[in-house]
Amino acid sequence: MTLLAVERIKLFSTRSPWWSMFLALGLTIGFAAMMALQSGPEFPLTLSMTQVGRQFGILVVLVMGVLTVTTEYRFGTIKATFQAVPNRTAALLAKTALIAVLALLIGETAAFGSWGVAQVVAPEADLAITTSEQWRMLVGLGPIFAGSAVLALAVGVLIRQTAGAVTLVIAWSMLVEGLVGMIPTIGEDIQNWMPFMMANHFLTGSAGDSSDMPLGPWGALAYFVAIAVGMLIIALITAHRRDA
């Protein structure tokens, strides 16, 4: 509990988490409001359309996860942290738990905030949550945000430089996973196993061409979480073996 309290004080004493929270919520909810404003008889608003901004929210959470640890490496405060807490694993796990919970709360707020704003802007739209797939679309955003933050934090521990880590996580989620599908013959099969493709499959359920996915929605979530945890384990081992 002491480690968590210390990490909470350190995290919220900087501006980056505050800006990240406001930006993630603003982008996600803002896109929902835009979709609602553009809706009408010829362009009916659906529940899935209220969540189109989630990709931008995920990008912000990825950056927040990276900054959580690379900022300490940049200013050298990580050395003081490891001197005060010789058990580096415990210190990094406390940081991970804090950022994961924060990202989880941001995700849930973004999902239901988008849904609520859309209902206010377009009250005539049918946005009732009646199926398990629709509930998963909203409630599931929190775990995806949390997993994304953990994954980004792990990358930050491994690279230790903000620019490189941020570039990697953004390029991977926005560019690399899409380009993999262009590889002849095996591209689509590999692409279906990419972590953020799995995360999107969990949220969208059986929509679109998800029947080609190798796992069901809940299996996709488990796979995404396993990738994030695996990256975290690698990061913890690396941090334990090298100099701060």
TrEMBL record:
The keyword Transmembrane helix applies. This is ABC-2 type transport system permease protein. The chain crosses the membrane at residues 18-36, 56-75, 96-118, 138-159, 166-187, 220-239. It comes from the Bacteria. Keywords: Membrane, Transmembrane, Transmembrane helix.
